[in-house]
Amino acid sequence: MCGRYVMARAIGDLVADAEAEADDALELRRSWNVAPTTDVPVVLERLIDDEVVRQVHVAKWGLVPIWAKDPSVGVRAFNARSETVLEKPTFRSAIKARRCAIPAEGYYEWKKAGTGKAGTKRPFFVHPQDDSMIYFAGIYEWWKDPSKAEDDDERWLLSCSILTMASPEATGESEVLDALHGLHDRLPIPLDRESMAEWLNPGDKEAGPLVEQVRAEAYAVAGQWSLREVASAVGNVRNDGPELTEPLTELLTE
Q1: Strand pairing category for 156-166 and 186-188
Q2: pTM over cut 0.85
Q3: b/e for 193-229, b at 16 or more Cβ within 10 A?
Q4: What is the pLDDT of residue 1?
Q5: Calpha distance 146→155 (Å, rounded)
Q6: What torsion, rounded to 10 degrees, do the Cα atoms 13, 199, 40, 27 define?
Q7: Partners of 48 in the β-ladder
Q8: Which residues of the chain carry a pLDDT beneath 50?
Q9: 14 in helix, strand or coil?
Q10: Reduced to 3 states, what is the DSSP secondary structure of residue 204?
Q11: Using CA atoms, how far apart are residues 23 and 200, in angstroms rounded to an integer?
């Protein structure tokens, strides 16, 4: 799964890296501890005058389906299981027509140590070895707030969810994939640049094959990542700063 991640790039750097465009007024808060229900950047494509335009928007992390009575549904929908995303009522409309990429510099995952109630969870920071961006396969939705006036600019809520899949098996062929297997049983699905272009394309495409395609390519992308244990401070959403991603061993020796 993905429950916390890092997105601290400046908006201009993100727009350039994603080869997208953004409104001049777009504001993006840099964070080393992004949590569900907060505002996050998303990359999506739209057809404008018969031309595909790639854009960066800000969305609430936690998808709110169009049929929801209120936005609280999104609290439980920040991740979407790729195995059932085509059937689940919360996600099945978005996956067919509203796919996006959710950029991150890395994400946190907690590894359980010990068994039973005495077991503890150790946080790890997972990130690309070359410090490039990760683009997670995501979906987005627009929800109309019935309590707001028609001319209220805040009547429409943009929200999103990150797709996940089973973590790779431990085969001994890749140290990174073996480590991811031992870290958690779920993996947020990363996109390579080619599959990202296909994933975002708003044209009329079958969603099922696209989901299978990004699932099939995910481990190759994840194999280029690196993991390091970090301090438990990341577990508190009020803590936010670059020190959260520093290796635990270095913090203990300072």
Answers
A1: antiparallel
A2: yes
A3: eebbeebbeeeeeebeebbebbbebbbebbeebebee
A4: 74
A5: 8
A6: 50
A7: 51
A8: 251-254
A9: helix
A10: coil
A11: 19
